[in-house]
Predict the structure.
Amino acid sequence: MTAGPARRPRLPEAEAEKRPPPDRHRKRYYIFSQDFRTPFGDVEFLNRDEVLADGRGQGRLEHKVRAYRTPFATGLPRLAGRPRIRVGAQTGVLQDLYGAKPWFISGRAKALTEAVDPDGLDLAECDTLDGEGEAIPSYWMADATRIVEEFDEMRSSFETLNRGIVLLNDVQMTAGLPDEYHSFYFPRYQSHFIVDALFADRWRSAGLTGAVFTPLQPPTEADLGADKEEPDYLSFKNHPFWDMKRASS
């Protein structure tokens, strides 16, 4: 008989008190995702069936992971041709990021990611149209390439479903993570990849659009974006967790 889905239970208060205290001076990390204010239909993959010849979107870079029998795949799938996309299809507004698995990024975003993390993303140039169907400078199909298998679970807050992670709240990395790992996947959290503070801060300071950076540590003022008409924190995948933390402090 197969066991039903089960979320990771919350620790009893007595056990929670035994958890090591968080490192308040740790490096910042974020979930990288499309802003929910951009409709997912705002990007159209016009020749998807031709380009993904086998009908699969699984990455072509395979990693052996201790927790799984089969390899974990990252990067872009094997492409049978050059992707053709339309951006701003619904809104007519051009953003620097669209989609999820795969992501599509503008030329400006590509230049920034290559400067910050040259080996971090797998990229493929796309023939690109705007919402009116006019050709514009290329966007790039993109996905992260590397993995980080572990983080410090004793110091972290997250929720699981069966063997996978469904929600990351407050994440402490293990010692020894290379400084040059500015983007990566946790194999147990497969829906989005993680970026560090350098990646997030450079993106925001360059004025790039279309992305939300969900903090995996207490949010900074820059993270919250409280000066905006629609504050960024409403887009955080874990904002109820941080709302609760602020309310109890």
Residues 1-17 have pLDDT under 50 and may be disordered. DSSP finds six helices and 15 strands in the chain. The longest strand covers residues 189-196.
